[in-house]
Amino acid sequence: MTLLRHVRPLASLAHLASAALLTLAAATAPALAQEPIRIGSFLSVTGPASFLGDPELKTLELYVERINAAGGVNGRKLQLTAYDDAGDAEKARTFAKRLLEQDKVDVIVGGSTTGTTMAAVPLVEQAGVPFVSLAGAVVIVEPVKKWVFKTPHTDRMACDKVFVDMKARGATKAALISGSGGFDKSMRAECLKVAPNHGVTIVADETYGATDTDMTAQLTKIRGSDAQAVLNAGFGQGPAIVTRNYRQVGITLPLYQSHGVASKDYIKLSGDAANGVRLPAAALLVADLLDAGDAQKPVVTAYRDAYEGRYKSDVSTFGGHAYDGLMLAVGAIKAAGGTDRAKVRDALEATRGYVGSGGVVNMSATDHMGLDLSAFRMLEVKNGTWSLVK
Fold first, then answer.
1. At how many degrees (to 10) do helices 297-311 and 50-69 cross?
2. Helix (H, G, I), strand (E, B) or coil at 114
C-alpha cells in the first residue's frame, strides 16, 4: 500500500515497504489543469552505491520542486516517481519495467550505476521511452542506442585524461588496480585499450573484490614493478582502501583515481592518505576556483549553493549528473512542445550548447553524451580538499 501525504503542490516521499519505493508526485490538480509530465527514476539510494543515489535523488526532488514552483514546464507540473534499487541490477530492471508499464512515465532520468543502467536499457529501447542515464561506462552510449543518453563523462575519457597528465609528469609506465564492479571492469578495459595511444605501457594489472578490505598484497606487487604511476579504476569504498594501503606499503609514485570517487566522501574515507592523489572530475567540485569568465562557473556555483543550502551537506558530482539529466530532459520537452516521446528523443539528440555541471553538451546522432575531454578538470587533493591542476 502506498501512502501519500500531500504538501503544497507536491507530494512527500512515499514508502512502499515491499519495493522500497520512493515517490514525489504532484498534488491533485485543478479540474482544468493539464496532465503532469511524468519523470521516472530508479536510483541506488541505499546500499553500496548510496553515495551516488542519495545526492541524485535529493537533486531531483529539489529541482522538481523548484520547477513546479516556477510554473512547471509549458504550464504543466512535473511528477517524479523514483524507486530505490539499492544498487541491484535485477531490482533496477523490475523498477524500470514498473515505470514503463504501470507508471507510464514520459522520460526516465536515473540509473546510478553502469550495472543498473544496462539492466534497464533493453526495456526502454523496446518501449521507446527517452532514458538519460547517470552512470559512467562508455558501453551505455557506445554503440549508440536510439533511446538512451547519459550525463557523466565516460570511463574512456577518464583514462585519456589521466594518461595525458601522466605523460606531462614524465611517466610512461603505469600500473592499474581495479575493482570487480561493472564500472571498474569497463574502465580497466578502456585504459588497456587507450594506453598505447598516449605512449603509456601498462606494466602491472591487479584487481580486488567488492568486499575486500585490504589491498596490500596487490599493491606490494605493484611496488615491485617498474611502474612510474598508478591508476585505480573504481568507485565506492575500494578506492579509499587502496589509497590508505598505498601509503602504508610505502609507495611514493603518483596515484590517480577515477571520477567515480569525485566527492568529499572519498577524502573523508581516505584521510591524510588522499593528499597528492589526482583524478579527473567535473568543474562542480572546484566551482570557486574557476576563472570568472568560465561558462560553467555561474551554473555550478548556483547548483552548489542550492544543494548545500537545502541539505547542509557537501555537493558531489553525482548530484550534478542528476541535475544535468533533469535539465536536459526538461529542455527537450520544452523544445518538443510536449511529451511526445519520439519528439522528446529527437530534441535530446539535437541538444547543442547546454552548459551544465559536467560541461558544455553538444549531442548528435552519433554521440548521446555530448562531452569532450575539455569538460574534465584534473584535480588534486591538497590539505584535505580539492585543488585545480592548471
1. 100
2. helix
* Cell, residue 176: 592499474
How high is the pLDDT of residue 22? 52
CB-count burial class (<10 Å; 0-12, 13-18, 19+) for 168? exposed
Say yes or no: 179 and 313 in one domain: no
Do residues 17 and 142 share a domain?
A: yes
Rounded Cα–Cα distance for residues 259 and 281 (Å): 5
Tell me what the mean pLDDT of segment 277-294 comes to. Answer: 95
pLDDT at 195: 98
Has residue 382 been placed in a domain? Answer: no
Q: Can you tell me the distance from the alpha carbon of 43 to that of 117, in angstroms, rounded to the nearest whole number? A: 9
Give the closest residue to 206 by CA, choosing from 193, 197, 227, 351. Answer: 227
Residue 6 in this model has a pLDDT that exceeds 60: no
Q: Map residue 141 onto helix, strand or coil.
A: coil
Q: Is the dihedral of CA 56, 134, 279, 225 positive or negative?
A: positive
188 belongs to a structural domain? yes
- What mean pLDDT, rounded, does the chain reach? 91
CB contact set of 210 (below 8 Å; sequence gap of 6+): 48, 179, 180, 181, 236, 238
**Do 169 and 88 lie in a common domain?**
no
Cα radius of gyration (the chain): 21
Range of the domain at 190: 155-281
**Cell 535485477, residue located:** 90
The residue whose grid cell reads 606494466 is: 203
List Cβ neighbours of 313 (8 Å cut-off, separation of 6 or more): none
- At 162-200, the pLDDT tens digits run 999 999 999 999 999 999 988 899 999 999 999 999 999
